[in-house]
Amino acid sequence: MKTLEDYKDGQILLIDKPLTWTSFQAVNKLRWAIKQAFSIKKIKVGHAGTLDPLATGLLVICTGKMTKQINTFQGQEKEYTGTFVLGSTTPSYDLETEIDATFPTEHISEELIHKTTKQFIGKIEQFPPVFSAIKKDGKRLYEFARAGEEVEVKSRQVEITEFEITEISGLELKFRVVCSKGTYIRSLAHDFGKALNSGAHLSELRRTRIGEFKVENALSPEDFITSLPSK
Fold first, then answer.
1. Which residue out of 52, 100, 191, 223 is catalytically annotated?
2. How many CA atoms lie within 13 A of 61 on its CB side?
3. In this predicted model, what pLDDT tens digit does every residue of 125-148 receive, in sequence order?
4. I need a labelling partner for 224 at 20 to 30 A (CA). Which of 83, 147, 156, 193 fits?
């Protein structure tokens, strides 16, 4: 069992973030639990890369002196799995918002789907979703979007090293992606739909890896909290 000194010296905690939790909530919950377990007033805890509330999977959480390594972990390659739904789009590019447009899908074959993935492998230009936490003029983009304000979003270059459709079930496409820091899988869904001369949005997302850290080695927040010493 880890001691207070272990957490202060620095630990890397692999946590499987539950659906609907924000990354901030996960960090807060673990910080509170560590403080309660050791009867202390403060300890540094931070995460290495945000996951949207509607995504699940790997959060790398650092404590104590290990928080200095957060930027290093954030910059590492990431792997995701999930589901795109063809034929419709949403303003947030995922299920946070309602469907705002529908598109024809009759022309889309399995061959076209697999062929289209090749357009997205390598260095690509990508526009982040307007419903994102990126800051512009001191405000987060989602604040403009939720207020119904128009805002110009600049594209950014990201790199996708692997992108495959692993299962096709009607309009639902299961996928696996390996990509660089800063890649928005919601934007990939949106752009993939456009490349098919249709539309698409993200309905499910799970982060399975960050660098060498894998989700199969992660604990749920509850299991981590149970592993702490009890008073």
1. 52
2. 28
3. 998 887 666 666 676 666 766 666
4. 83
